[in-house]
Amino acid sequence: MAILDHDSTDTRALTQQRFERMTLAGGDGLGTVSSKGLPPGPRWPAAVQTVALLRFRHRFHPWLHKTYGDVYTVRLLPKGRPLVFFTRPEHAKEIFAADPEVFHAGKGNAILGPVMGEHSLLLQDGAEHKRARKLLMPAFNGQALRGYQQLVSDLARDEVAHWPADQAFRSHDRMNVLTLEVILRVVFGVTDEQRLAALRPRVNATVNVSPAVLLVWTLPSLHRIGPWKAAVQNQMELDELMYAEIRERRTAPDLAERTDVLSRLIRESTEAGDPLSDTELRDQLVTLLLAGHETTATALAWALYELGRDPELMRRTRAAAQAASAGDPDGEAWLEAVLKESMRLHPVIPMVVRTLMKPQTVAGVELPRGATVGPSILIAHQRADNYPDPERFDPERFVGQSPPTNTWIPFGGGVRRCIGAGFAIMEGVAVLREVFGAVEVTTVGTDVPLVRNITSVPQRGARIKVRHR
Length: 469
Description:
- By secondary structure, the chain is of the alpha+beta class.
- Helices cover about 50% and strands about 10% of the residues.
- The protein has 19 helices and twelve strands.
- A five-stranded mixed beta sheet has the order 1-2-8-5-3. A three-stranded antiparallel beta sheet has the order 4-12-9.
- Strand 1 and strand 2 form a beta hairpin.
- Helix 16 (about 310-325) packs across helix 19 (about 420-440).
- The protein starts with 7 loop residues before the first helix and ends with a strand.
């Protein structure tokens, strides 16, 4: 595929073409799928079930599980396509271990297509997915993560130093600012303040899109109206900035020495003899940006919220932060346990999905081609037989032990496990170490999850107060 050199007009044309190609209304060649013979589920119209799943998931998933048992079916737009949920760890194991040539993850993530693009690691399957993952892997191996850690720590230390003392603020907002800065510098390698200032609001507008706007792509006629028009315009402007960064990076005199993900991808693909086009680079970078920004910020905000409610956990975490700063692996282990328990109790993503390219049997259930299947992360993390007293925040669950297999699945599993999982853990631990090495946290009020696009965030921002040491 040829490397593209775009001007602003070319960029906007590429963005418009992506919208047209990736619209859900365009179909995926699988046709209408019958729900006959599938596990039970609501008989409501597909539009109602789609809204319930997207907007009210924290009530809908538990209600489905309580009403229909461990396996149940919902029907979604377009065309009432069935989505069959499985909630037991052995079910998750079977799905994650299944043949990726039959269990396609890309089609299950199709709602993200207009934003992430057809080359996105999340939307690809088969040989294309293998190629993209192979190119991305070196940017997330152990050596690379160690190289990123100091930058994360420096940014976190500077962020916490500016927090107001004894004054309530939304920790989620501050964590979003921090993780966005990390991702822009680590993934994009952007250090120019003018370009950072242009990127930040456009990335935030993409992340903050509502579920209703996500569905705009099924109705292109809405692209000229209100919030949908604004979302389209924001995508145009973000793409212009990203393509400009990619063009400049290809000719950067220090390209060979740079350690950011964009520079690594340009070098890796060139050395492999199959250079990634500007469009392919753009799609992978947006994927990493959106998948690795708000998800980590949300896990960290919930961690601060939960620790600020429990003085004993706060004391232990501050001691662990000090120990970790001195190189004590036990201190690091406790901070990692805090982060993992936050991800368990407050899942950012509700489910992992695969679309069947052939008829299959899962957990003894015969399923037709075109059906989508997946473990419910929400239910897996809430099951009392997986985690006793599941509503309690207890990092001890992760100290010196791993959770039972396929009961903790915030990063999915199998060959499609999130490529940035190691980065997210490294980043989260580094941030917690800097936060609790500098301040003591007290939670202000209570909070509950709120659905924002495909993620869930603290409705009130996980409000806290801090006291600097």
